[in-house]
Q: What sequence folds into this?
């Protein structure tokens, strides 16, 4: 599967959604996740993310490994999104900030 990591939080650009052939993205208030049961590992979303937040599971950086479980867990709570929407208002300001996990809303 592919995994959405920390830098999506408070950005949520959603460019990833439009290229996904299987609608595997699910949306929460300020973060998206990839449903590991739906992702077909096509990888087309990776270069679309302006926050570089998406990785193949085997390429997830060491400090982002917890997001593998977070994507799986939140796939039961978040709702499917199949079209891009506007990024969050301060997305460009938050892009690249560290320690955003504390701001994840469910
Ligand atoms: Fe998040 Fe990047 Fe998609 S910021 S919503 S993973 S385009």
A:
């Amino acid at each position: 599967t592919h995994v959405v990591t920390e830098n999506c939080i408070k950005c949520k650009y959603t460019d990833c959604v439009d290229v996904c052939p299987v609608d595997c993205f699910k949306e929460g208030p300020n973060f998206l996740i990839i449903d590991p049961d739906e992702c077909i590992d096509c990888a087309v979303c990776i270069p679309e993310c302006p926050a570089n937040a998406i990785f193949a599971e085997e390429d997830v950086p060491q400090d982002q490994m917890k997001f593998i479980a977070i994507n799986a867990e939140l796939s039961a709570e978040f709702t499917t999104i199949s079209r891009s929407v506007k990024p969050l208002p301060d997305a460009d300001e938050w892009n690249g900030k560290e320690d955003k996990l504390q701001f994840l809303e469910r």
About this structure: The pocket of FE3-S4 cluster is lined by residues 4, 8, 11-16, 32, 48-49, 51, 53-54 (CB under 6 Å). Residues 2-86 form a domain with the Alpha-Beta Plaits fold (CATH 3.30.70.20). Residues 66-74 form the longest helix (9 residues).
